[in-house]
Amino acid sequence: MSFLSKLFGGGSKAAPEPAGDKPLGEESYKGFVIRAIEMRAGSEYQLAGTIEKDVSGELKLYRFVRADRMSSKDDLVSLALNKGRQIIDEQGERIFS
What are the tens digits of pLDDT across the range 36-78? Predict the structure, then answer.
């Protein structure tokens, strides 16, 4: 997978979460698990999260990072979970392709 696809939310197959990702919030949505993860950008938080689902007995993971930044962890969690729901609604399991 190229550097750019990783940077802009490219999916990966059955990859564990990268070391250092600290989950700040989590929810189940339509059979997927969405996690807001801590990604610091200086003194702010950058919008980042993961989406995972068991597909045919294999755990699939999709990581997303967006340019949005905020100063509050609560705002980060809310926005990351919303973005995760939006991605699932738009793409479903295709995010793992």
Answer: 999 998 999 999 999 999 999 999 999 999 999 999 999 999 9
Domain 3-96 in CATH 3.30.160? The answer is: yes
Contact yes or no for 69/17 (Cβ under 8 A): no
| Model confidence pLDDT, tens digit, residues 5-30 | 555 555 544 444 444 578 999 999 99
The ranges assigned to domains in the chain are: 3-96
